Amino acid sequence: xxxxxxxxxxxxxxxxxxxxxxxxxxxxxxxxxxxxxxxxxxxxxxxxxxxxxxxxxxxxxxxxxxxxxxxxxxxxxxxxxxxxxxxxxxxxxxxxxxxxxxxxxxxxxxxxxxxxxxxxxxxxxxxxxxxxxxxxxxxxxxxxxxxxxxxxxxxxxxxxxxxxxxxxxxxxxxxxxxxxxxxxxxxxxxxxxxxxxxxxxxxxxxxxxxxxxxxxxxxxxxxxxxxxxxxxxxxxxxxxxxxxxxxxxxxxxxxxxxxxxxxxxxxxxxxxxxxxxxxxxxxxxxxxxxxxxxxxxxxxxxxxxxxxxxxxxxxxxx
Length: 318
Ligand SMILES: Nc1ncnc2c1ncn2[C@@H]1O[C@H](COP(=O)(O)OP(=O)(O)O)[C@@H](O)[C@H]1O
Ligand SMILES: [Mg+2]
Known about the structure:
This protein is of the alpha/beta class.
């Protein structure tokens, strides 16, 4: 059964849609079967993956209202993921759903019949905390919160977490919070790091590493109908999303039979270089770093060399 991840933040322009398409493409590269769900009436995910929302006849709107089964509406994208597309009609769907019993469960029920065909379902939520986002959270196992590090970002996180707690209490007790994903990140400013530290401490929420750096490559991708994983394959942004996809695949118990690059958790001051009894190893991915390291170039995805470690040490410092 698929692991379902909702990507939510009621603020627009924080890279929800970009994160869904990039993580989806990266999970697809890993050989996972991926379904993306566009839950935003602006249909940016649908457009950015090469479909014209203005000419689509069938969309997630028909599915949420129970008129069509999801399997009929799902379409394949060029990057290998499947997509349940949206059109502007979704805006009207919200009002219709409001008058229905069990409205929060419409997406979860609609996905039930296709979910076994996928390893991952990623849901692109709209920039609101309305019934569509609540449908996304009710259908999800985990929520990821993309966050642009700027003053007052924390207020949005607080409001979203209140909604998450309501959903956990009322419609989906199994919903977990995967963490905040720093996006449009500028590691040169102390401000970014301060905002992340504040959010993490204030809400006791994980900050996922590596941060996604600001790059013009992201703005170029949607116009081509492909994700940045295809348009700028070796860019830092693509590699950052690959790192997150590997972590999601591992932690969600959906690891492929092949092991891929080593994954290490990083904790400072844990090792004594020079006391080695083992060979150094190359690692490509860092899944968790201390917050103060978030802005360091060292977490920015170059393969890194781990210092020789004493036998028995199970954690590494990079
Ligand atoms: N890391 C990044 N660097 C620069 N631009 C980005 C980055 N991530 C996303 N963008 C751009 O920011 C804009 C908003 O991103 P989008 O994913 O649509 O946000 P949301 O879905 O939260 O509204 C888009 O133009 C997108 O191309
Ligand atoms: Mg969006």
